[in-house]
Amino acid sequence: MKANEVPQDDANLLEGKTRDVQYALDQNGKYVTVKSVGWEPKNTALLSAWEIENEKIAEALRLVQEGKKSPIYYYMKKCLMDIKLLASYTGFSRFRIKRHFKPDVFKNLTNEKLDKYIYAFGLKERNELFKIIKK
Amino acid sequence: MKLEFDHKMAAHCENGVISNLLRFYGIDLSEPMIFGMGSGIFFSYMPFLKYDGIPTTTFRPLPGVIFRNTTKALGIKMHVEKFRNPEKAMLSLDQNLEKGIPIGMVVGVFHLTYFPVPYRFHFNAHNIIAFGRENGSYFISDPVMEKIETLTYSDLKRVRYAQGIFKPRGKMYYIEQVPTEINYNQAIIKGLKRTVTTMVKLPGPIIGVTGMKYLSKRLRKWPTKYGHKEAGRFLGQIVRMQEEIGTGGAGFRFLFAAFLQESAEKLQIAKLNDLSMDMTKIGDKWREFSVISGRLCKGRESSGENYDRIADLLYEIAEDEKQLYLAIDKTIKS
């Protein structure tokens, strides 16, 4: 690949925070580094992976807002986790986490327990958990 | 406190941290050199190992392999440590920073607050360097980021104790001792030899160029065997493994070509320069493979672009690479 052929297909996947480093040949046939904002096939592959995840996340949000699942369930999907991974982050057993998916059980969780979820999901405050129920 | 630290970006995080750490101790090696000495080129197709129903294809060696190979070849003494207790892991980091030592760490990217959100998956083998601390935040040199980043104490602790596959468990490392004299040429030869071995000399059908041919054979049957949707999902995964941050199909070929070019000069072997150009052409073919595969999984292929076409292309690439590695073998032996 020549340096002037390094693709610059921006799909805002790097969010302007950084660029990829590519090695390519300059006019004298010497390897140099060129920064790139993206490349179409790569963008598409990443976007299709997200498409599948986003469907699951939207479905989870619907279940929470219909009162069928607790926000823990939604955030688990949003953080691309499964019960096993969430159990590892919180220290709760898988059985317990499944109980916390029930809106009635969730309502009565102590702050101490909620904080473990906040840590696992990387949230700033407990309020973020409750925010999504109302709509 | 903040150490005088020169941050340079890299195409692959593992190369990047090694290169940046070494430069701090006065050893200036380019990313391609680190990659080549560490024998970063790899390929394996493991249909029996499935994730989410998708067979595994990998274009990179296991995390830490390049690191180990390179430091060993250069005779650099590293200190590597894991901690059971997260507080102790952070304390040890602080104490070493106070001593003026930049510290490399293995972290998970999911909770890496400065990372672009679309790239935050539960991938736990990312490498970063801390080189200072101020007002409870750490200065971070992350080889895939353009600028210096910062992380708070709790955010850094969380990524050092990321959960899931390949838990880092607070793993940190730093350079203990740098030898007074380094035989670079020997390290280059060693890296080349190891690459030849993994890519063409290892037995079994799944590793190296034989692995590529195996994948080519299997991939041809995907649409009839699994249907177009499932085949597309499999193929999409290959493209992702091939071109995403830190992994590498074409990207790694260009890195290796750059390594061959630099080595030609260092070892005074002009033939390696020719081989570098051959590798560049192979890299271009890998890019073509990605482009057609990308269209295939989206159902946007033009005429003549089908699974047979990419299977043929992959076979051709495998054959080209085989000739190239054998030529390298012959060149360094003479």
Name the pair of protein chains with the most residues at their interface, and give those residue counts: A-B, 36 and 50 residues
Q: Tell me the strand percentage band of chain B.
A: 5-15%
Q: What structural class is derived from the secondary structure elements of chain B?
A: alpha+beta
- Helix count of chain A, per DSSP? 7
Order of helices and strands of chain A: EEHHHHHHH
**How large is the radius of gyration of chain A?**
21 Å
Secondary structure: elements and pairs:
The complex is a heterodimer of chains A (135) and B (334).
Chain A: E1 20-25, E2 31-36, H1 40-65, H2 71-78, H3 83-90, H4 94-100, H5 103-107, H6 111-121, H7 127-131
Antiparallel strand pairs in A: 1-2
Helix pairs in contact in A: 1-2
Chain B: H1 13-24, H2 31-37, E1 44-51, E2 54-58, H3 65-74, E3 77-81, H4 86-98, E4 103-107, E5 126-134, E6 137-141, E7 149-152, H5 153-160, E8 172-177, H6 184-201, H7 208-226, H8 228-243, H9 250-267, H10 270-298, H11 307-333
Antiparallel strand pairs in B: 1-2, 3-8, 4-5, 4-8, 5-6, 6-7
Helix pairs in contact in B: 1-2, 2-3, 2-9, 3-6, 6-11, 7-8, 7-11, 8-10, 9-10, 10-11
Q: How would you describe what is shown here?
A:
The complex is a heterodimer of chains A (135) and B (334). Helices cover 52% and strands 9% of the residues of chain A. Chain A has 135 residues and is mainly alpha-helical. In chain A, strands 1-2 form a two-stranded antiparallel sheet. In chain A, a hairpin with a 5-residue loop joins β1 (20-25) and β2 (31-36). Chain B has 2 domains: 13-37 and 77-177, Cathepsin B, Chain A (Alpha-Beta Complex), CATH 3.90.70; 184-333, no CATH class. In chain B, α2 (31-37) crosses α3 (65-74), α8 (228-243) packs antiparallel against α10 (270-298) and α10 (270-298) packs antiparallel against α11. The mean pLDDT of chain B is 93. At the A-B interface, β1, β2, α1 and α3 of A face α8, α9 and α10 of B.
